[in-house]
Amino acid sequence: MSDPHGKPRTISTDRLLIIIPTYNEVHNIRELIDKIRMPLNDCRLLIVDDNSPDGTATAVKDMQRHDPNIHLILRDGKQGLASAMKTGFQWGMDHGYEYLCEMDADLSHDPRYLKEFIDQIDEYDFVVGSRYVPGGGILNWPPGRRILSKLGSVYARLVLSAPLNDFTSGFNLWRRKVLEDINLNTITSRGYGFLIEMKYKAYRKGYSFIEVPIVFEDRTRGASKISKKIIFEAIWKVPLFRLRF
After folding, report:
1. Which strand (E) or helix (H) includes residue 196?
2. What pTM was estimated for this model as a whole?
3. For strand 16-22 and strand 44-49, is the pairing parallel, antiparallel, or unpaired?
4. For residue 165, what are the contacts with CB-CB under 8 A and spacing of at least 6?
5. Domains plus CATH for the chain?
6. Phi and psi dihedrals of 242, rounded to 5?
7. Which residues pair with 216 in a beta bridge?
8. Could you read off the pLDDT of 11-35 as tens digits, one per residue?
9. Class of residue 84 by CB neighbours under 10 A (exposed 0-12, middle 13-18, buried 19+)
C-alpha cells in the first residue's frame, strides 16, 4: 500500500496495542510473544489474564523484566473472552492507542499476518483475519468442528444480510474510533456471539472493513475454552442482532 507519492504507508507501532486474553496458557504465551516480536519488535502488548492457576501471569511478569512494552492486567478469576476483550479494549483506549488488535494466546493465530493487518488498516476501519476467503483455511480441526464453524459464519452472514465471511474470527484489528462508536458497554454477548455482534454493529454503522486470508491452526498445547453453551448463545442471539441494529 502506498501514498499518492508512491511511498509505503503503515501505522506507527507505538500507536498499536495487541490484546491477548489468557487462561491457562503458560505453555504458549512465551512462544507467542517471541513470534510477535519477529515482525513487530517494538509493538505494545497487553495480556489480560483471568488468574490462571497454571502460572501464566508469572510467566508474563518474568518477560516484563526484559520487555517494557509488555503490559499485564491480572483479574480475579475466569470471566470469559468477551469480558477480557472489553477490559483490554477499554484499557487501550484509556491509554491513547489508536489501533487495537485482538488475538488468541494458543498459537492458532499466526503473528506473521500482523504486518498485512497493519498495512490494510491504513485504508479500512477494521480488518478481519478470515479463514473463509480464498487463501484462508483451517489446519488440524476434526471434520465436525470444521463444519460447525463454517456453518456458523454462513448462518450469521445469511441472517444478518452482511457481506462478511468469517463473523466468528477472533483475530481482528480495529481503529479506536470504531470501538468508541459501537460502545462496547452495550454488547452483551459472550464468546462467538461477542465476535459476531461487534462486527455486525460496526458494519451497520457504515465502517469499512477487509477480510485478510489467514490459515488458522488448532492448538497443540492446552485445552480449548469454547463450550457448547457459548456456541448455542451465538446461534439464538444472531436474529436478535438483526432486530436491534
Report:
1. helix 192-204
2. 0.89
3. parallel
4. 130, 132, 133, 153, 157, 211
5. 13-244 (3.90.550.10)
6. -65, -35
7. 138
8. 778 899 999 999 999 999 999 999 9
9. buried
